[in-house]
Amino acid sequence: MDNFRIALDCMGGDYAPDEIVKGGVLALEEFDCDILFIGKEELIRQVLKKYKLRQDVNIINSKDSIEMNSSPSSVLKRKNSSLYIAGKLLKENKADALVSAGNTGAVLAVGKFVVGACDFLERPAIAVALPNKLGKKTVLVDVGANVDSKPRHLLDFAVIGHTYAEEILDIKNPTIGILSIGEEEGKGNDLVKDTFPLLKETKLNFKGNAEGRDIYNGNFNVIICDGFVGNIVLKASESLGISLIEMIKEEVIKRPVSKLGALLMKPAINAFKKKVDFEEYGGTPLLGTQKPVIITHGRANAKAIKNSIKITKAFLSHHFNERMKDNFEKYIQPALKVL
Amino acid sequence: MDNFRIALDCMGGDYAPDEIVKGGVLALEEFDCDILFIGKEELIRQVLKKYKLRQDVNIINSKDSIEMNSSPSSVLKRKNSSLYIAGKLLKENKADALVSAGNTGAVLAVGKFVVGACDFLERPAIAVALPNKLGKKTVLVDVGANVDSKPRHLLDFAVIGHTYAEEILDIKNPTIGILSIGEEEGKGNDLVKDTFPLLKETKLNFKGNAEGRDIYNGNFNVIICDGFVGNIVLKASESLGISLIEMIKEEVIKRPVSKLGALLMKPAINAFKKKVDFEEYGGTPLLGTQKPVIITHGRANAKAIKNSIKITKAFLSHHFNERMKDNFEKYIQPALKVL
Q: What mean pLDDT comes out for the span B98-119?
């Protein structure tokens, strides 16, 4: 049995440290794992006092905490912060993964520059698994770790996405598309046009250009793109989802008979909301780093933190980084030698 | 009273020529305008025979028609096609606007290279008005006419969007944002970082970076972006909208009580669908060309064509191109002199 050591940044997030520590306790009670609680020891102990714990808890004291509005570059100088210390534990092989609900830019900076990229990749990337019309998931990589990516970086995103689909979503030999503005080869911007022939050279199950609509219709298992585009699409989608529900509500309020209908439909709407609730997924992973870094939503409560730790465990028990390395050697490296 | 001459490409679209001609007839009956029916005269006359027309109809015969899967570049060589002839009528000032449900790439090519850009702009762009959470509209420019745009092109998109918001949506001094991946100045890719200071120099009501979520939350009246990003966000949004409705349906089917609820909610859902149905808007305009070019959905039926002609009339009666020129001189030109 693996005994994973998960570094939990207890000082990051809107409800830190209370909900973060509480989430860590829930995870300890439910899952088999070691959690390193990193933060102001006194504050952590205050929260822990409320629980009867069956085991000793590992606390690593930190003097400094990154604010939700700190600039990502400043974070790299604040070496006494809980987040920086957590990153360093990964780098020094004293922890196997990092979970933080701190500000995304700061967690990204620590992931990219403190933990660092895997030796075989140039750029880590953020992957999300979005629900599609077929009732399955589509992996979108990168959704915000990189802007102005180069073709070589998109190959990294492809192997990250491929491994995510195989290991976490259990999709064998996943189909891969590159996000563009037209199906045919030759359509797209310079980055797409330059990356397309490289992807054809790899041994990945590359199916050509994907369009915006393909993100939600299930035509591809994995879609890769520059993080600028991916981030905008993701945030627009979240916002559109919320807006659509608001718009339906508005129309319902206008019609008394619809109000009754809405009441009767409530269980269905709730089930649906749960399905598309990006927070239910328990954090977004930055992958391609020396060890996985899980970015949890800033508004994460204890349950969300517990879910994040659950997904972190999934990455670790699948030996995600080893599989990614195998896949890189099998699918990408032969192409790089040709190029 | 203006007497606008609208060139209608009768051979473009999945239901051409029947539904297109029929849509033109509906427009003639409802609105005050001249329609130039361009296509195979014999086919057009066959459709017209079914109607008692109160007036003579202008038909311009064309020997060739662009297929829905023709490559955009081939279109520019097919000078006898209805679409090319329509574009040429605009160029030669023999028509005031063009409506086509033909393949988007082909219509774009004709708009950009046959009709051509306004003298004061470098790049025409496609603008859409998307419904936002505030029950208003947000204008997004460009959604697909340009890839790998330069900062100067984004200034063109800004004046196109500003004029659209003022003239068509009746929003005075509209707020303008540039689509990026973070609110603060300095966040984004190279294009955003290079365009941001130029936008600050203009006299537009520039409010800084917009994020993906801002497209649907109503925080900006106009959001500008490269057409690669805009196209992907738009197509992802359309597809997500459809998927969400499918997912709700699926949850409803599982629950008998919800089925009754769904029945009672139907009027609200239909009103909502109408609100977010991109086809209801009656076509997407390519603006910044010598004369407006309205791209109607390939699946357009007669009603959609009629709606496209209606929106075309709105652009013409607002003297859109003259207003755009005024705005360019007032808001953009002083900045260009400084730069």
A: 95
Q: Determine the longest span between alpha carbons in chain B, in angstroms.
A: 67
What is the reported pLDDT for A87? 98
Minimum Cα–Cα distance from B189: chain A residue: A147
Least confident of A67-76, B4-13, B180-189: A67-76
Cα–Cα nearest to B288, from B153, B104, B133, B95:
B153
Distance (Å, rounded) from C-alpha B137 to C-alpha B128?
9
pLDDT digit string, tens, across residues A177-224? 999 999 999 999 999 999 999 999 999 999 999 999 999 999 999 999
What CATH class does A122-278 carry? alpha beta
Fold of the domain built from segment(s) B1-121+288-318: Isopropylmalate Dehydrogenase (3.40.718)
pLDDT score at A1: 47
The confidence band for A72, taking pLDDT boundaries of 50, 70 and 90, is: confident
Fold for the domain defined by A1-121+288-317: Isopropylmalate Dehydrogenase (3.40.718)
| Chain A residues touching B215 at Cβ < 8 A | 236, 239-240
Edge-first strand order for the sheet with B222-224 is: B58-61, B34-39, B5-9, B97-100, B293-295, B284-287, B125-131, B137-141, B222-224, B175-179, B205-210
Task: Select from B244, B250, B264 the Cβ nearest to the Cβ of A261.
Answer: B264
Retrieve residue B45's tokens.
């006359």
Report residue A194 as tokens: 């330059």
pTM of the model as a whole: 0.92
Contact B250 A135 (CB under 8 A): yes
Residue-wise pLDDT for A247-288, tens only, equals: 777 777 777 777 777 777 777 677 666 665 555 556 899 999
- Three-point CA angle B281, B284, B290, nearest 5°: 135
pLDDT tier at B337, thresholds 50, 70, 90: confident
Dihedral sign, CA of B184, B188, B193, B199? negative
Give the CA dihedral B19, B20, B25, B31, nearest 10 degrees. Answer: 120
**Beta-carbon contacts of residue B108 (< 8 Å; ≥ 6 apart):** B72, B126, B144, B145, B286, B295
Range name among A264-268, A334-338, B32-36, B279-283 with the lowest pLDDT average: B279-283
Instruction: Name every chain A residue with its beta carbon within 8 A of the beta carbon of B140.
Output: none
Closest alpha carbon within chain B to A184: B71
**Rounded distance, CA A215 to CA B238, Å?**
11
Select B123-280's CATH number: 3.40.50.2300, 3.40.50.1000, 3.40.718.10, 1.10.486.10. 3.40.718.10
The residue ranges of every structural domain in chain B are 1-121+288-318, 123-280
User: Alpha-carbon distance A160 to A81, whole Å?
Assistant: 29
Specify the residue for token string 């192409």.
Answer: A335
pLDDT tens sequence across B164-176: 999 999 999 999 9
Tokens of A40: 């102001």
Complex ipTM, two decimals? 0.90
Q: Give the CA dihedral B91, B94, B96, B99, nearest 10 degrees.
A: -80
